[in-house]
């Protein structure tokens, strides 16, 4: 294990230089209607990336941030799902795998209402979108009202949440389930090792990994895991992307996904009020989801939330940052909050000792400080933790985390993720949500003392 003293955290970059650099990344990655996460490794539009990117873009151009979300929601399926990738027809098929000809959304997805004229993937990602829409609206309410932004996205966001709480309640306990490791966004988390062990991988010669053209193998998923990802995606495609309880080899309830759904449901209540609709149903659903989150995924022995394997029926005994993200949920029981705060600073995650929270328990058997979601620190999860800490009155810890994130973003050239001990760059560089959330943190630094914060949803408005 790397010593905390081996490599110092990189020196801070001044905020003006940092803001210019972050803005440059977003301008470079803008395609005219949306923002790619990176020009090489991720050349299309990704779902939760676009939500985080919109949160940062609002500080440069509220109109462009609105367009980011509108373009994503324009590819929504009739059943309400928001696909995790919207493919650009101008990008060659061999630039990314799985490509549109693998997913076949317009044909295989037709029974579920996939759009006929836009190629997408058939799986989803965490629902950050209503939260992003509300924050984007608040950045420039006048432009938002002139463009009819909230009314235009409201019904689509309602349908998205209805899908997650309806067809995707595969466990019957009120929480949204994910049917592929790519869906929770933490693709290669050790949380999925057990459930993936049931999956026979696709034959190695049946596909080509384009990700290794742009990333080091030691920082990416193994070939064995990737083969299992391909098998699950192909099986889901061949089922017509049907969501059938008991019909999936991989089905999990993830605490990060459901925490984001809760916070976005609270945001949807505010959007409803802003459009003249009734916010009460959204607040009621947020309350039901919060109760279900605690009932089904809270582990008192671990002091954090765990994922639930719906095939085996048990909580998965792996401690990832997904189990800490529910700090963003308002109104958690006090004993749960106190335990979470203790776990964040405790031996497994060591926030305050390490610059940013790792994606997996440092003392866990599968910890790797460099490999995708198996230990590195990510900017989006730490952005969420910063908001959650602040929402529960931990301003000092939140301030320190914000400063560490800004330092790491600048020194790493806005890396996709970083070593949790040293904050050294890992993954691709000039990454979209790293740059976007840097802009948001910088804006928060400027307004921290002027009374313009609202932490009722764990985020600033």
UniProtKB/TrEMBL annotation:
The keyword Hydrolase applies. Pfam families: MGH1-like_GH. The keyword Hydrolase applies. One of its GO terms (molecular function) is Glc3Man9GlcNAc2 oligosaccharide glucosidase activity. GO terms for biological process: oligosaccharide metabolic process; protein N-linked glycosylation. InterPro entries: 6-hairpin_glycosidase_sf, 6hp_glycosidase-like_sf, Glycoside_hydrolase_63, MGH1-like_GH. Keywords: Glycosidase, Hydrolase. Residues 42-434 form the Mannosylglycerate hydrolase MGH1-like glycoside hydrolase domain. PANTHER family: MANNOSYL-OLIGOSACCHARIDE GLUCOSIDASE (PTHR10412:SF11). Belongs to the glycosyl hydrolase 63 family. This is Mannosylglycerate hydrolase MGH1-like glycoside hydrolase domain-containing protein.
